[in-house]
Amino acid sequence: MKLSIATLFLSLILLSSLVLEPAMAQPRSPFCDGKCKGRCNKAAVWDRCFKYCGICCEECKCVPSGTYGNKHECPCYRDKVNKKGTPKCP
Fold first, then answer.
1. Angle at CA of residue 40, ends 22 and 65, nearest 5°
2. Cα 80 off chain centre by
3. What angle do CA 18, 23, 28 make, to 5 degrees?
4. Contact by Cβ (8 Å): 64, 74
5. How far is CA 58 from CA 22, 26, 78, 86, in A?
6. What SS3 state is found at 71?
7. What is the pLDDT of residues 49-90, one digit of tens each?
8. Is 88 helix (H, G, I), strand (E, B) or coil?
9. How far apart are CA 48 and CA 68, in angstroms?
10. What confidence tens digit (pLDDT) does each residue in 7-52 have?
11. Which residue of 17, 35, 37, 76 lies most exposed, with the fewest beta carbons within 10 A?
């Protein structure tokens, strides 16, 4: 009896994690994935660069060309700042 309850409980946990995970993940467009992979290609901390670039790309719908600079090409991307007042977008 205890084994069947434990098995049922673990099954419910597994099922709920499979259902909730896609809902919690932010969908990212193929456009932003491609642009951010190029933008963060030479970044020392690639995963962080890719994360913040993706957030900025989804909000601004653009990513500057190259791996550094060129932020004049996308004013929204350039002007985003974090709560400390420093640039949010790589």
1. 110
2. 16
3. 115
4. yes
5. 18, 10, 14, 19
6. helix
7. 999 999 999 999 999 999 999 999 999 999 999 999 999 999
8. coil
9. 15
10. 666 565 655 555 444 444 455 789 999 999 999 999 999 999 999 9
11. 17
